[in-house]
Write a structure and sequence with these properties.
This protein is of the alpha/beta class and about 250 residues long. About 30% of the residues lie in helices and about 20% in strands. The protein has a single domain, classed as Rossmann fold (3-Layer(aba) Sandwich). It is built from 7 helices and 9 strands, in the order E-E-E-E-H-E-H-H-E-H-E-H-E-H-E-H. Strand 1 and strand 2 form a beta hairpin. It is globular.
Length: about 250
């Protein structure tokens, strides 16, 4: 475990923890104030803690008094594991539960937790919410970006191989990533939802499903012409402004 690094009145702590005999790695970004609320991030299917939204949050959240944990799910980034054999929604939920429990026992933050997830990371947050509540770690809210609620709606399934993994058969997705989380959405509250209405990977109908089934308070931000990656700079600025405002309202 590495020592805390201090930069511009903020601290960055490299962390490592085990889950199902896999060593997972992450970064805990801390503000200068004591006992900050903790935001936990879950990246997308082929992402990592170096994904653009994760890095953006690691900068802007400590500046506004919030701690942020970003980590690599098993088989991704620096974490141990094989992407093909270690990737499923249930395993990602386990990763997230272990990450939360590990960071909270460091006593560097308050017990007030808030979830962040992009794409499959959003699905992970939805599924993890009730599991955290069962452990007495009730989330205060969540921000979800382009999150699939029902995997059958996904329009583009990444079967072709790339530099991070081999080609995947359709059976990989049928065996590991087939889900409908609609019944779990009602547990969520203080929910901020982002979705581009031109998302070709996860159709925007998932955002409307989330919004209609989640508990109050909640807010839906539809990004006009937005894609799955939120590549539009104006949309990124909207994301930044809305997230900070929502967090401050949640923890006011």
């Amino acid at each position: 475990m590495c020592a805390i690094k201090t930069s511009m009145n903020r601290q960055i702590k490299e962390i490592e923890f085990t889950c199902d005999n896999r060593m997972l790695y992450g970064m805990l970004h801390l503000p200068s104030c004591p006992d900050p609320p903790l935001v936990i991030g879950s990246h997308g299917l082929e992402g990592s803690m170096e994904s653009s939204k994760q890095k953006l949050l690691s900068e802007m959240l400590p500046e506004n008094g919030f701690a942020f944990l970003r980590f690599d799910h098993r088989g991704c980034g620096r974490s141990e594991g094989d992407f093909v054999t270690d990737t499923s929604l249930s395993k990602r939920v386990q990763d997230m539960l272990h990450a939360v429990e590990y960071v909270l026992q460091l006593n560097l933050t308050s017990l007030k937790i808030f979830l962040f997830g992009s794409s499959l990371g959003g699905s992970t947050c939805i599924s993890a919410w009730s599991r955290l509540a069962d452990k007495g770690l009730n989330p205060w809210g969540a921000t979800l970006c382009a999150a699939p609620v029902n995997s059958l709606t996904i329009g583009q399934i990444p079967l072709n191989g790339n530099e991070r993994r081999p080609a995947l058969p359709l059976s990989f997705f049928e065996d590991n990533l087939l889900f409908d989380l609609t019944e779990k959405v009602s547990d969520l509250h203080n929910l901020l939802i982002f979705h581009g209405d031109n998302d070709k990977t996860v159709p925007v109908e998932n955002a409307y499903n989330l919004y209609s089934n989640a508990s109050d308070p909640k807010k839906l931000v539809i990004l006009k012409g937005g894609d799955h990656q939120m590549s539009n700079k104006d949309h990124q600025k909207t994301f930044e402004t809305e997230v900070i405002a929502w967090l401050k309202k949640t923890f006011d």
